[in-house]
Amino acid sequence: MSExxxxxxxSGRERSLVNRHPWVFSGAVKDLPKAKNGExxxxxxxxxxxxxxAFFAPNSQITARVFEFNPxxxxxxxxxxxxxxxxxxxxxxxxxxxMQTNCYRLIHAEGDFFPGIIxxxxxxxxxxxxxxxxxxxxxxxxFKALNEIGFKHIYLKTKQNTQLLEQVEQVSxxxxxxxxxxxxxxxxxxxxxxxxxxxxxTGFFIDQRExxxxxxxxxxxxxxxxxxxxxxxxxxxxxxxxxxxxxxVDSSKDAIELCExxxxxxxxxNKHKSYVSDVFEFLKEVEPSFxxxxxxxxxxxxxxxxxxxxAARGYKNLNxxxxxxxxxxxxxxxxxxxxxxxxxxxxxxxxGAAADARRNVRILQQLSQPEDHPINIYHPExxxxxxxLLQVD
Length: 393
Ligand code: SAH
Description:
Elements: E1 6-9, H1 15-18, E2 23-25, E3 29-31, E4 40-44, E5 50-56, E6 62-69, H2 78-95, E7 103-108, E8 117-122, E9 125-130, H3 133-137, H4 139-149, E10 153-156, E11 173-174, E12 183-187, E13 190-194, H5 209-218, E14 223-227, H6 233-240, E15 245-250, H7 253-266, E16 272-276, H8 279-285, E17 293-296, H9 308-325, E18 330-336, H10 343-357, E19 361-367, E20 386-392
Parallel strand pairs: 1-4, 9-10, 14-15, 14-17, 15-16, 17-18
Antiparallel strand pairs: 1-3, 2-6, 4-5, 5-6, 7-8, 8-9, 10-11, 12-13, 18-20, 19-20
Helix pairs in contact: 2-4, 5-6, 6-7, 8-9, 9-10
The chain binds S-adenosyl-L-homocysteine.
S-adenosyl-L-homocysteine binds at residues 205, 208, 228-231, 233-234, 250-252, 255, 278-279, 297, 299.
């Protein structure tokens, strides 16, 4: 049996870990183990009680990420990881109907008790992002497990943005049989083409699946504006649900091209127009009361905690424009995917915008991320996507 090095917590700093929050912050550490970046270590209290097993990251603010709370000596071997991945897969079988949806999140980091990894499925392709050294070190086992489950094509994708938790040494590449792009997928029966090599994130914003379905239920006969449209997820649902017209706006020309390809697949391009434009500038020019429904789904304005104030102003301005422009009796679907802006703060920001617009606004639904992005109850940070469906008088 392997011997794991121990990270000893300061006296009184074990509370959050006893409560199964998976992060050990540097300030809570009494004794660092002599372990390498990414090595699997044990987390113990000041009284040498074993709490669990974690990936070590000596140079990160989060010194260790626990993937297993367990007071017993166990061996973290290949079978352990294969089991974890199979558990994640089996959970998805509960709610993903493969006749309707073949793109979904298979592994959602802390939400699957597996910090440092995201894995998204697009038909027979899995796209993986390894966010810490710990998961990078076991990557071969992860690829093998995914192969055993039945995924032939595996693409490893480097995370491009600043949320990168630690420096990892990867180059985006196929790590199992390559597949020609784009791959055709369906989500709630709606078809999309995804390019996992060149697309944003892992290729598609699969976390909006349920919210797109909800938009569809309101779209028949309506004029819909989809802002920050990326590859047109919301737009195609609205078109297929019988919208009178749909306009998509994104500042990226590449995104608009993807959007148009997906609209083309639906056969409803005659009801669609797209605009390469800054959303704020576009909204300012919109004729008031033209759109029945406006979707506001911007990128994360707050990528870190220090950015929250600026981000709040951004969300407020955006929602204010939405409230000023939407038709009386119309709907706004508004979202934030910033981890650092929680549900309550987001609601307060939207409240502020509504008050400034001096219109009656009602919350019809509170929206979140779907089941394949589970939220570990001890790790509220995992609840990153929040939204409101609003009716504006
Ligand atoms: N709603 C999309 C995902 C949005 S991702 C979906 O369901 O798939 C955010 C998008 O906003 C990106 O495509 C990015 O190009 C675009 N974007 C970012 N800032 C923008 C701005 N100021 N104006 C217009 N588009 C912007």
